[in-house]
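Q: My labmate handed me this sequence with no annotations at all. I'd like to see what the chain might look like in three dimensions before we decide whether it's worth expressing. Could you predict it?
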Amino acid sequence: MSKRKNTFTRFIEDIVDDTKDFVDDIVDRAKDLETDAVDAIKDVVDDDESDDKVSSPGVAELEAALAELTAKVNQLAELQLAAASSSNSAPSSGTSSSTRRTAAA
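A: Here is what I predict for the chain of 105 residues:
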């Protein structure tokens, strides 16, 4: 093989060729990244749609349980209110139970 002469124009030519190769590689990687991102977003959107169908019965169960618990809490609040109003209407003996405990100690 013969030796290549290193002239200034060949030096510039090598830099331009290397730069073109570098830019081509970057563009190829950007295309791959874009394709992968689009695929990932499609997968996420598809997963969300299928999750709605699966979780609907679960959500319905939770809403029913929440309604049941709310009814129980309301019932207990009414009982507590009734107990408080009946204790307020009862005649007091003049000495509260906490005062009696303190005097006994």
